[in-house]
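Report of the visiting student (M.T.), summer placement. My assignment was to run the structure pipeline on a short list of targets and document each run. The first record concerns ATP-dependent DNA helicase RecG.
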Amino acid sequence: MNSILDQDIMYLSGVGPKRKEILSKELGINSYNDLLEYYPYKYVDRSRIYTINELVSDMPFVQIKGKILSFDEFEMGPRKKRIVAHFSDGTGVCDIVWFRATQFVYKNYKVQQEYIIFGKPTLFNGRYQFAHPDIDDASKLELSQMGMQPYYITTERMKKMGLTSRSMEKLTKTLIEKLSQTPIPETLPDSLTHRLHLISRQQAFHWIHYPQNAHETQQARERLKFEELFYVQLNILRYASDRRKNYRGYIFGHIGQIFNDFYSQNLPFPLTNAQKRVIKEIRRDMNSGKQMNRLLQGDVGSGKTLVALMSMLIALDNGYQACMMAPTEILAEQHLQTIKDFLHGMNIRVELLTGIVKGKKRQQILEDLASGKIQILVGTHAVIEDHVQFARLGYAVIDEQHRFGVAQRAKLWGKSSFPPHILVMTATPIPRTLAMTIYGDLDVSIIDELPPGRKPVQTIHKYDSQMTSLYSGIRQQIHEGRQVYIVFPLIKESEKSDLKNLEEGYEALREVFPEFRLSKVHGKMKPAEKEEEMQKFVKGDTQILVATTVIEVGVNVPNASVMVILDAQRFGLSQLHQLRGRVGRGADQSYCILVTNQKLSKETRKRIDIMCDTNDGFRIAEADLKLRGPGDLEGTQQSGIAFDLKIANIAQDGQIIQLARDEAQKIIDNDPNCEKIENSIFWNRLKELRKTNINWSSIS
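After the run finished, the structure tokens were exported:
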């Protein structure tokens, strides 16, 4: 039986077909439940009435009570009038001003009738005025019921159709009153809400929309945030529990000649303590009999690829194949070259499979992969295509996981009789609360040390008026034998104006640096052209690479010591950090120059200052999460949260996330098969909520 919350919003008094259409298109509100979960973004205290003689210029929104004494009209150009009502409460006189809606004003507001005015007072020509305030008939408004007035975000299109924040408030009030007659279904058992001192769901919806005071708002928010985050965590932990229960893993208990030969003869430098710790964690997983699903986080240049390769060699020692998936052809080719360099002189066959590998060569690779002659395969998403078959795939590494969806990761499982062990790598540091929410089904390892000999990149902020001195600094670095990246802000490949800026900028830089050779790379180029230009820079044939963010992931040129980012104000913190990671890969001091204009917003200046203050990717990721919110971070929609967050904030609600995870874990520990009757409220609610439900067992 459907809940009353599933009722079509069109049938709520005050909505109807036209308003339903705009609510649906603009806010995604289609049902009573959708309207209930469209929460206010702020509240204003409506419990007190001020007098006109108490008004001061820096007041927020206030309300006063009095009568309109008279109206005046002032011409404002052709067919435009300003209407001013002179308003008094006996302690003074103020003005109410309208710049439009002439007939509406005269029709609705009368001289000598008592009204309550609500708005922000401003001083104009020595008298306080309220522009387009809320006006209510004083005889119909009871202050005891007003409390805190909610404010709702509305779009321009809604406002043009008469759907303002006040309209949303009235619709919500109508719904709350309607639901007071019908209990709202509870989604958490009494045993849990009592123990955690949470109010009921019915009470929470009432207080979130119509609180009498800040305490009620706080209690409502705590209940609704906990509920959201609890079901996100329960969904993650239920899936992780099912996976561990249903999927055994290959046991790689043997450390053999391949690993030992590499360690004793090919290891290019001593492992850091962090690398040693992570390899031990991976070895423990591989030997457990359970399928490994581990997230490896490490800043750019921290040595993740070496750790991944050494763990792949363990799979080879146990008679299995390994593969590595990367999000782009450039990154896949670079991983191939890095792995081949590491394995120089060893009898291990490593091959590449991407979209550019075609014809007979591709066919030969597929045959040799299926027969087991290829031990390590490096590629893009081409690796998970149905016709790609391994003889014995035991280990898979996925680089830059946020570029791949969950379903793509799951496709690897069908490449073997048991699901292979999976190591997910990312150079994008993930704040703990976000990792818990998005990658909550994975165990986490962190490499938090740089290899010996690496110097931190020095980050400098320059204004675009200082380009002359910047150019001379670039010249000096190139004369010392270094190479330079210059990045233009082509954030989206469809921005033609940015592409034009890059093309024109490239030509201008050729004139500035006639003595040097330049390469150019952007996403609109054909893969072969892009690769050719990139290779010129990698080999040192060109000294300057002019590029867009296409180089953000994966280009490794140890000789490049300068990263210049133009219009740096247009980039997010994580993206700036990723770009900065392209330099500082050799032993020489490297520099990242952030170039902006001088008119920067407070938030942008904060971003630039953070970049200049620290090289710590985790500090930067935490700051980025707080500044931008989780919805803006690349990949959060496709890689983890099964249902949208309406009120919880991953950046700010760390304690509630931890509490929600602890409580969800208790449920899973108590009911690992999700079948106990006393827990049916949880499993039924999960079914209602889940918008994407990958059937892992059916993927083959």
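The chain has a mean pLDDT of 85. The two ends are 36 Å apart (CA to CA). I thank the supervising group for their guidance throughout the placement.
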